[in-house]
Amino acid sequence: EPEVTQTPSHQVTQMGQEVILRCVPISNHLYFYWYRQILGQKVEFLVSFYNNEISEKSEIFDDQFSVERPDGSNFTLKIRSTKLEDSAMYFCASRWSEQFFGPGTRLTVL
Amino acid sequence: AQKVTQAQTEISVVEKEDVTLDCVYETRDTTYYLFWYKQPPSGELVFLIRRNSFDEQNEISGRYSWNFQKSTSSFNFTITASQVVDSAVYFCALGLTNSGGSNYKLTFGKGTLLTVNP
What we know:
- The complex is a heterodimer.
- By secondary structure, chain A is mainly beta.
- Chain A is built from no helices and eleven strands.
- Chain A is globular and about 35 Å long.
- The termini of chain A are far apart.
- Chain B is an all-beta fold.
- Chain B has strands spanning 3-5, 10-14, 19-21, 24-26, 32-39, 46-52, 59-61, 64-69, 74-79, 88-97, 104-108, 112-117.
- In chain B, strands 2, 5, 6, 10, 11 and 12 form a six-stranded mixed β-sheet that branches. In chain B, strands 3-9-8-7 form a four-stranded antiparallel β-sheet, with no helix packed on it. In chain B, strands 1-4 form a two-stranded antiparallel ribbon.
- Chain A binds chain B through residues 31, 33, 35, 41-45, 48, 50, 55-56, 58, 89, 91, 93, 97-104, 106, and chain B through 35, 37, 42-47, 50, 91, 93, 95, 98, 100, 102-103, 105-111.
């Protein structure tokens, strides 16, 4: 069964460093998303992406964040200068009709 | 503004008991979607069901059933004859479409931690 994959599963970085989280959506899906979940809290929407552009973003998704689909398969989330409060689980999702989520990348900012 | 409330933070049951997880949502939109996702201890989010706002039919899938009531803005989830493997955090989510109507983002509730004891 096709699934969304994410790499790495865990990323540790120093505050102020740039990180890139990678996702491979399900191949025939057209819409792509990033969500995050701070430990013990609810899942929050960050951004949606369709037709090679952002279709919607939340207040959390400020200028430090960017997304890209550099080729036909990968979908990336970049955080330019990480802060302590960026520590969270980041989920990628893709959809045809339902949103299917990847296993997540746990980002730890020290 | 949209909001999803899962008033039950934690529920603990003994195996084979039935359990209902409550979900209440708020939105001014007339077209929306409702979802349940399961997050087992391994951390992934597993899709369980989607309902659209025009379809109030209840649904049963094996031991799982869902009760959608627009009059009370509720979308409750019942597990019949619970099993230890049902132990997880369960999230209810509301999907609102964008202005073009082709895309939607999910607003999640805070989740209910269900523990099923043997």
